[in-house]
Amino acid sequence: MYGIPALPTAGMTPSGRAPMELPKQVIRIGEQALWSSVNFSGQPAVAATSHRMFATQLGQQGAGFPGPLSISETNLKEGGRVPGGYAYDVYAVALHPNFYGKAAAVNVGSVDVPEMTYYNIKLLQSHGVLVWDFLQVQVEIAPIELIGGGGGVFGAVSTNAAAATRAALNSGSGQIWAYRQHPVILPSNATFSMLLNFGSGAPAIGQPLAVNQGGGPGGAVLAACDLSVRCCLLGRFQSAIAIG
């Protein structure tokens, strides 16, 4: 039924079952994350606007940041290019919002007021859309509400004896948007970026709210509330290595 041992099966030759020559190259595969960020400061109006990520490289100023981008904002060595000139297969996308605030009275560090943190995260989820940009072609990925596993703003809030409230909130959307069957392939010679687009109904980011340290309304107004959004691509690169 399966042929005589040591003899080729009907329709096949020995060379068809086992190649008689050595390969000319091997493929090296590695997994790596690529990330880029965009910053919003000074309560900017974002209704019907588009903001580009993966276009500003490490050590260069841009994307709304006041200074050069550091490793926490991006790891691209060249804007819009996969490092090393490799082809890169994207299997998942993650989006991480960061909150920065300053009190009105004094120029202090981050003020983690629950209302302002919730406001910025929910604004991003409700009005933001993530888009691939390949120069001549743009492909919408999904609304930010769906980047991950669902919506909402969740976390922990604590209040001390002086009625000062602090909160640690996240988007509650899970960690990634996964391409379950077909990854996005970025060729080694392609230029790419991603757009964070907002709908026409989006309010200004970090719009001041009167909140007190107890978590309720009627307190001091925040002077500024900045939002930084970091997008991470999770995937693998491939490179051919000639041998022989």
How much β-strand is present in the residues?
A: 35-45%
Continuous helix count:
2
Overall geometric form: elongated
Low-pLDDT residue intervals, each spanning 5 or more residues: 104-110, 212-217
Structural class: mainly beta
Number of domains: 1
Distance between the termini: 40 Å
Residue share in helix: under 10%
Q: Descriptors for this entry?
A:
13 strands; mainly beta; 4-stranded antiparallel β-sheet; 5-stranded antiparallel β-sheet; 244 residues
Q: What do these coordinates show?
A:
The chain has 244 residues and is mainly beta. It has one domain (29-242). It has helices at residues 14-17, 114-127; strands at residues 25-40, 50-53, 87-102, 128-134, 137-143, 154-159, 165-170, 177-178, 184-186, 193-198, 210-211, 217-221, 224-242. Strands 1, 3, 8, 9 and 13 form a five-stranded antiparallel sheet that branches. It has a four-stranded antiparallel sheet with strand order 2-10-4-5. A hairpin with a 5-residue loop joins strand 6 and strand 7 (165-170). It is elongated. Mean pLDDT is 76; it is low at 104-110 and 212-217.
Task: Present the secondary structure layout.
Blueprint: H1 14-17, E1 25-40, E2 50-53, E3 87-102, H2 114-127, E4 128-134, E5 137-143, E6 154-159, E7 165-170, E8 177-178, E9 184-186, E10 193-198, E11 210-211, E12 217-221, E13 224-242
Antiparallel strand pairs: 1-13, 2-10, 3-8, 3-9, 3-13, 4-5, 4-10, 6-7, 11-12
Summarize the structure.
This protein has 244 residues and is mostly beta strands. It contains two helices and 13 strands; from the N terminus they run H-E-E-E-H-E-E-E-E-E-E-E-E-E-E.
